[in-house]
## 1
Amino acid sequence: MSHLSPFQIFLLLSIVKIAVVLVILLTTVAYTVLLERKVLGHIQNRWGPSRVGPFGLLQPLADGIKLFLKEDLMPLAAERPLFVIAPIIALTCALISIAVVPFGAVHRIHGVDIFAITDINIGLLVILGITSIGVYGIALSGWSSNNKFALLGSLRATSQMVSYELALGLSLVGVVLRAQSLSLRTIVESQSSHGLLSWNFFGGYQFVAFFIYIMAAYAETNRAPFDLPEAESELVAGYHTEYSSMKFAMFFMAEYANMVIVSCVATLMFFGGASSPFGNLIPAFGGAVVQALLPVFWFVAKVFAFLLLYIWVRGTLPRFRYDQLMSFGWKFLLPLAMANIIITSLVLALHG
Amino acid sequence: MQLALFIIFGALAVAGALNLLLQRHPINSALSLVVVMMSLAVLYWSLGAEFLAAAQVIVYSGAIMVLFVFVIMLLNAGKEEKTSGSRAAYIAGFPGAAAIFCLLSFVFLSEQKALGVANLGGHLNSGLNNIEELSRVLFTKLLLPFEVTSILILVAILGAVVLARKEDQ
């Protein structure tokens, strides 16, 4: 590669990284759907999808083919450009956030960090900003399909996401105070000194913040028990009632991609990201390749645990009522998050 | 590269602002305003103010404009009627706008030395983190204005709560 300039190497490696990460993310999304159907099935004492391929493993593929080949219906009264652009906004915003997530230890090849697409010093704010833009996809989809149920669903989703964004953002401030940085790499590094004990959840005493975050994040992604925007018993299917074929699939993928991103952020902020839970207790084994891939393994394992938690919660908890949802967010989570910030900053100021 | 970014997103901001005025449906206007906000955020970023850029996206495009769109959706505002506009606006508007433009460009050009010259692009090369500086200034030198502003916003929130409260007692 000596005949390439550093900029060309950077560009090529970045493109390769983006392609690989996107493919992995989309595959994860597809298989999270299968995992959800399987685990929910077992929670409800049935098998879940088991026909396509061994253990139903090819089910996502079959679903994909089905969605691609379905007829793409366009409602007559829909606002055409917005109706088309809404699922694109939703999916794009869901996929972009992965760009700032570091999913392994720092490992440079030709000066390019290969286990993160990019590391910017306001990485956390970028994720929050992109999530807040993602609201438009849902808001516009409901409005532009010119359907009462869709509009009601999107109004619910919008107000819910705007309300819970506050608690979500505030719950992360404690972690930022501890790490003194908004860069996700630095936040991970601040938790990697003593393994499990230095994670923000255990050693950093941020478990209150973690529970606020995880509840607000469930509401942000419109998942059970906060899945009122698509409450099927009241709203048909909520904001994506009028969507069919790939446009529906884009909303579906956006929802699961958001779940993956939220799990990644929870891992990074509270569970030490790609750092090992054992710290330096386990001596380094294997070659350089194993040592480089081990942090990625820890990261993936943690994210997988969070995805399982998502599914477990969906299979266990009933749905909130709408006024309960709002008062829970504004009267319980938000004050709790503020109290957590005050206590964390007091402790940091007194103990340094 | 950074200059190109600046030019592209500057043009996008201007185009979005024009589209905002020319669109006849309120929701399209609101969405063009979102485009303006986002391109402004990129401009801030390309000038090295990354925290301002993120705050712009989170606060303006992510919260305030969402509420705008929300209100337009709730009111179900239809297409605006295109009117010819008042005569006074035509007589006073264009000369007034031209006069303000001339005045501003005159001031900027005549005070060029005092104002100094800004470089477009190249601000991202240093990799300096300005969040720390920003917060230091906000919490030491500008502490009083900062806190007073937050009280001002609190007053606005309380006012909204008082106005929105049901009078059932």
Note: The mean pLDDT of chain A is 84.
## 2
Amino acid sequence: MSLLTTDIRLPDDFPVAEKSELNIGYIPLLDCIPVIAAKELGFFEEAGLSVTLSRESSWASIRDKVQYGLLDAAPMPAGIVLASAMHLGASQPMVTAMGLGLNGNAITVSATLWEAINPINATFNSQEAAMALKNYLDSFDGTLNVASVHTYSTHHFLLRAWLQHFDIDPAGKLKQIVVPPPQMVDAMERGVIDMFCVGEPWNSLAQAKGVGHKLLSGHQIWENAPDKVLGVTKRWSDANPATHQRLIAALLKACAWLDNDESKLSGFTMLLNNDYIPIDDMESINLMFGQHSFTPPIATFPWLSQAKWFGQQILKVTDHDQPLGSMDTLVEQTYLTDLYRQVATALNINLPRANTKDEGVHTTDWEIAGTLQPIDMPSDMRFR
Amino acid sequence: MKKRLSVLVIDEDRGRAALVEQALRDQGYDVLARLDTTDHLADRVDELKPDMIIVDLESPDRDVLENMAILNQSSPRPVVMFAEQGDQQTIEKAIRAGVSAYIVDGLEHHRMKAILDVAAARFREFQALRAELADVKNELADRKVIERAKGLVMKHNRCSEEQAFKAMRKMAMDQQKPLNDIAKNIISVLELVS
């Protein structure tokens, strides 16, 4: 059952914001739409917040600015928030009380590599794509440059999970490098990278320009995989609890608005038309390719079970065994499920009863218990 | 005597990079290279092995350096990781000036602080210069607009330069608008009729 955005409003006696002028950063990607929509449709204003959006050039810059208060909050890969909580790459632990979307990523190979691994232009599932790549690598002497956008990004984790699942050594003949999203297509065009995993619209743009070809969608690696979350520092959240809740309320409204293809399409078009994403040949792009979902609470609840998966991926790439203390404590301190619950309750919208769910085992739609009514969950299998 | 620290400066703004490089040399540091963006940044850092990297906070190459820091134990690490009580302020000041840095583990904090301070000061100085330049450019542009409007008024009213200017100044006072706005209006109107 879809939510009506007009019904979503905070009660009049909701606590006043400690801080009402906020700076929020974003990286040009289709999945930054919830913050842009909340701004353009006036949902921030309605929640008593005056928000300035600022386009940032790297995840590192977003993290540092959030760490030092130049930005109050930003959508960021869940991995960056959890890494900071593990004191990796940051000194201020970050927290999140809200997810900002599922899906939206893909793996693209250069036009040359596509021709080499798939001369008959077949449609691949994740296993066929892995086998084709493996066969190519077996008879190939050099190394392929594989780019993702940040070591702690969902793209990097998905890419590694896929390679390792099908016994391809991610460090063997593949050289893992990092390239910022807006430079991805250009780097592939110049022959610097052979394969990349990035969020939309950059895969679709590479394909539209004939520079690359989509090998797999993120959906084929993990259906309805979580990605960005709303990141703030713990210090900021502690100092501004009402502001934080109002921010979540505005974004929940934006996500509820995005709960149908028509809104999504008009939202994405607005991103490209209003220069939030600086590309010109948008007509050739399939904006719906990413299968983005922003639907509350499936895509917005801060599921502890997802935090745990991200935490484990961080340990794998950094060769750590355990975070300080236990993983359970870490995810509970970092994913603020109670804060989300308070806001959703104030808005009178449906909530899952549990903070965790089974991840990656459902081949078809399923259902979980909700506070107001049962919640329809989409399939979430890995390696389709 | 301690070994001279080596610093790598990464900045797409060559003017600013030159300013930072000179200031660091003056303070007795080795500046290994000054790079604007490069596809092979990771290889260059491996090759040069700097003790510290100074990089524009807004540089898209930051995530490349992050990746090196995470995957390679001997690569320089982001300075925000090292923010202990005493350094918080130094790092915050640097970030506000638009400077980010990566440092090797074990670099003494006072030495890191000294380099960050130099870089932040130069970034701020450069920012001020740029703002001043923009002001001068605006002022020149304003003056050109006013001159052009004056010329059009002289032609249209067949009057002297002084009379034209007086007329424009009176309009500005009557309408309580900057002379520059009045000039722009005159140009748009008179260019239509002429």
Note: Residues 105-221 of chain A form a domain with the D-Maltodextrin-Binding Protein; domain 2 fold (CATH 3.40.190.10).
